[in-house]
């Protein structure tokens, strides 16, 4: 094995830059919440697009989430994640209880992202099974989305349920730590 110095794929941005992109009330809400757990700032258009995608078929489907991470330099444990775009997996194999996405979704994410955006997580559906992380979902999160800021979103489009999980241990985030803009 050979070590090569390489620029990291991901760098958190300064938290002040994140606050400049929000309104006053959203900033106050995030400041109040993120001291106890991270906060996800979600564009309403993203959740609408993801829901529309997952409602198309009654099998598991999914994709990647693009966004940014904003971190307090003085206290690195304080951060929030913005979710700015969903990238649908167009090549996949699925049933009503399983999903295998093709690697081309990563290429699509690179093509569709803008400067400063990174893959901050993934999403998938559990049609009529409820919103929860299965053992397989937890393994996927730990293997591919293992940063503390990595998001896993599961949606049951039939029961109209959704839950967010974060980090390599797939810790469920309380609904009050999700801010929709």
Automatic annotation (TrEMBL):
GO biological process: proteolysis
GO molecular function, a single term: metal ion binding
Domain MPN: 39-180
Annotated InterPro entries: JAB_dom_prok (IPR028090), JAMM/MPN+_dom (IPR000555), JAMM_MPN+_peptidase_M67A (IPR050242), MPN (IPR037518)
Keyword vocabulary terms for this entry: Hydrolase, Metal-binding, Metalloprotease, Protease, Zinc
Stretches assigned to coiled coil: none
Protein name per Swiss-Prot or TrEMBL: MPN domain-containing protein
Organism for this UniProt entry: Novosphingobium arvoryzae
Lineage: Bacteria, Pseudomonadati, Pseudomonadota, Alphaproteobacteria, Sphingomonadales
């Amino acid at each position: 094995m050979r070590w090569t110095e390489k620029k990291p794929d991901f760098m958190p941005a300064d938290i002040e830059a994140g606050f400049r992109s929000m309104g006053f009330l959203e900033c106050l809400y995030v400041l109040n919440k993120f001291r106890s757990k991270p906060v996800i700032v979600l564009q309403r258009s993203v959740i609408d697009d993801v829901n529309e995608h997952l409602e198309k078929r009654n099998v598991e489907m999914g994709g990647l989430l693009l966004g940014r991470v904003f971190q307090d330099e003085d206290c690195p444990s304080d951060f929030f994640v913005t979710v700015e775009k969903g990238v649908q997996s167009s090549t996949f194999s699925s049933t009503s209880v399983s999903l295998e996405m093709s690697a081309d979704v990563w290429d699509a994410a690179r093509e569709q992202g803008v400067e400063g955006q990174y893959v901050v997580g993934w999403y998938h559906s559990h049609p009529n099974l409820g919103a929860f992380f299965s053992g397989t979902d937890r393994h996927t999160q730990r293997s591919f989305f293992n940063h503390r800021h990595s998001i896993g979103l599961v949606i049951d489009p039939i029961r109209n349920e959704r839950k967010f999980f974060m980090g390599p241990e797939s810790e469920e985030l309380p609904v009050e730590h999700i801010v929709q803009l």
